[in-house]
Amino acid sequence: MMNGSTGRRSGGRGRVRAASLALGLLAGALTATAAGGSPAAALTPPVAITADDLTTWQTNGIVWSMASGDGVVYAGGTFSTLRPPTAAAGTDEQPALNFAAFDATTGAPTGCSLSFTISSGTATVRALALSPDGETLYAGGQFGAVNGIGVSNIAAIDTDTCTVRNSFKIGVSATVRGLAVTDDTVYLAGDFTTVGGQTRSHFAAVTTGASLLPFTANADEVARAVEVTPDGQNVLLGGDFFRINGTNTHALAVVNATTGQLTKSYPGFIHNNSTVQDITTDATGFYTGNEGTGGGVFDGRIALNLSDFEQRWRDTCLGATQAVAVHSGVLYSGSHAHDCVSMGAFPDQPRKHLLAQSVNDPKLLPWFPDTNDGIGEPVGPRVMTGASGGGRDYLWVGGEFTTVNGKPQQGLTRFADGPDTGAPWVPNVSLSTLTPGRIEVNWQTSFDTDDGELTYRIYKDGSNTPVHTTTGYSVFWDRPQLTWTDTDVAPGETHSYRITASDGVNTSAKSPAQSATVAGSTEAYPARVKADGASLYWRYDEGASTFAHDSSGNLNNGFLRNGPAYRQTPAAIAGPSTAIGFNGSSEYAYSNRLHAAPSRFSLETWIKTTSDRGGKIIGFSNLTQQNSTRYDKHVYMRDDGRLVFGVQSGGSRTVTTSGAYNDGKWHHVVATQGPFGQGMTLYVDGQARASNILVSGNENYPGYWRVGGDNLSGWPNRPTSNFFEGQIDETAVYPTTLSSSQVSAHYALRNG
């Protein structure tokens, strides 16, 4: 969500944008046919634009508006210079005062140069829109002259000569933030209250000859977006308003294209603390980008049908949406989304700025290029537009960002329908030999910025011929474990394995070789953990990766964060397994899978530490990449070394050991919660050390298992550190309550 509210353009847009995209699609289809295949063959349908950013010239400020046509992309905003793609800020710059034109295919400036200025204050171009014939570019914003020719916040540019059309002049009293153009009409949205000396509150329409039309759609607050429906009969309005022509309709309205009278109102449809920042259309629908400020707001996107103007779907991700564009049945959006858990996607985490969804389904598609927040407010992308050139379709993005896909790039970037050049990440691999005569090859699925379904090939003992090939789906917040068991092995043999990930065109490097010696007998301790029903079992035998593989058989793998110390010995359990070390300040592990809150559970792990700063050992919480805001069902160590098991049940309920366990020795820790009369029990080294049989409930929220650290604010005897400093081994979670005999049996098997 955003703090405050900043105006922006809506446009470039109107009917010409949809037409431009459609023509681009046709050109792309013809090119693909001539070449004998699709240029986006590696992409996961329906995504048809790669996530690979192309070399593009940069601005030294914010790009607020764009329009495209005839192979040219026009950009307006608040900037004063351009520079080449690799140039650092302040170097190799050329003047460009709030406006520039670019070759859609090369990303380089064209010869069209215009300066938008104002006598006092800061000039800015907030809206651009091309006439359907492409001969006139309309510009709106806050400016008083274009190339020295006096205008009043709106101007018309002859695209052939790149000069101001003197025949189009009309006074607009304040900033124009949105434009939409038909063959004979220019629709305006913005801050103004008069146009041509007559009252028009925030929306207006003029002829292409700059005569004010009777169209009246007076709004009580700022207007930010305006689009004409493809049939030309209605106009879609977006902004901050609560009333149009005196009728309640917050942030969104549909009005008659001739009169401005309401066709469809939306009272209570969008949260009062949210606004519509952008609107775009395709043949069957229209789509809004929304921004909110404060609690309980709506920040996502809405798809609505043009047939009845009713909602098709709604996305409730948090992180204000600033721009939307449709290409080939996919809605692309620019936002600073940080919490999409309500949509079954990622929990609150660092921001993602570019997303894609089917126009028929709000599920996030596997398309994740990214920018940073950048300068200004800052929120990253501000505008999107489709363009075509050289037989390809492009998605141009402008805004206040200063990096794209982790590399310096300011103000502008672009993506194409191919070729896809980005390879998936190298898979993280872990081997397991719990059963005689078998080696389990486990790996964490990879990530590719524009492909969800990847193909994995396993190579054995240095061979270049794979012994196994399979596919798996993954996105950056959900990289599930895959497993293949090699039975063509014998006890005592040592074998090595490497894995590649491919999107069908690009293939990752082979993973580092991992070796294992085939077991001759079953290890007693892990066999008992599995037999007693562990739903998650991390042994921490990985060499160096972000992967904690699950030995329970449930593929409940974990992510290791911030580089904990791998392969610590001696481990807690006798045998070939190793432990992992956490630094007590930033390192931890979390489960890949989102879990429902368990009503009955057991937590089991081994710890070794000499720390006097305490820290969380294991627990359940709602976030993964930052300290959680909801957290219980956990075990933590106090500064004095005593262990605490706590749940939320009408308040913080805890049981605490009388002894300390920060003596530098391995200790077996088990926490269980069962029904009333069984309640909470905390075991250490095979014996019950603390209990409360009356506490049978815990807080109900979906969450993740975390090991090694998380928030402990508000809990009794909170330790100095949220994070545990020491070694951890053999972590297991059970959906049942282990009995005291089961716990003591596990402890007894430590010497295996």
- Mean of pLDDT: 94
Terminal Cα span = 53 Å
Poorly predicted segments: 1-41
Helical fraction equals: under 10%
Model description:
This protein has 752 residues and is mainly beta. It is 5% helix and 42% strand. It is built from three helices and 60 strands. A hairpin with a 6-residue loop joins strand 56 and strand 57. The longest helix has 22 residues, at 14-35. The protein starts with 13 loop residues before the first helix and ends with a helix.
Quick overview:
The chain is mainly beta and 752 residues long. It has three helices and 60 strands.
What's the SSE blueprint?
Elements: H1 14-35, E1 58-59, E2 62-69, E3 72-78, E4 81-83, E5 94-95, E6 99-103, E7 116-117, E8 124-130, E9 136-142, E10 145-146, E11 149-150, E12 154-158, E13 163-164, E14 176-181, E15 185-190, E16 194-195, E17 198-199, E18 203-207, E19 223-228, E20 234-239, E21 243-244, E22 247-248, E23 252-256, E24 262-265, E25 274-281, E26 285-292, E27 301-305, E28 311-314, E29 321-327, E30 330-337, E31 352-358, E32 361-364, E33 381-389, E34 392-399, E35 403-404, E36 407-408, E37 412-416, E38 428-432, E39 439-444, E40 453-460, E41 468-473, E42 481-486, E43 494-502, E44 514-517, H2 524-531, E45 536-538, E46 547-548, E47 558-561, E48 565-568, E49 579-583, E50 588-591, E51 601-608, E52 615-621, E53 631-637, E54 642-648, E55 652-660, E56 667-673, E57 680-684, E58 687-692, E59 704-707, E60 725-734, H3 740-748
Antiparallel strand pairs: 1-4, 2-3, 3-6, 4-5, 7-10, 8-9, 9-12, 10-11, 12-13, 14-15, 15-18, 16-17, 19-20, 20-23, 21-22, 23-24, 25-26, 26-27, 27-28, 29-30, 30-31, 31-32, 33-34, 34-37, 35-36, 38-39, 39-42, 40-41, 40-43, 43-44, 45-60, 46-47, 47-50, 48-49, 49-60, 50-59, 51-56, 51-60, 52-53, 52-59, ...
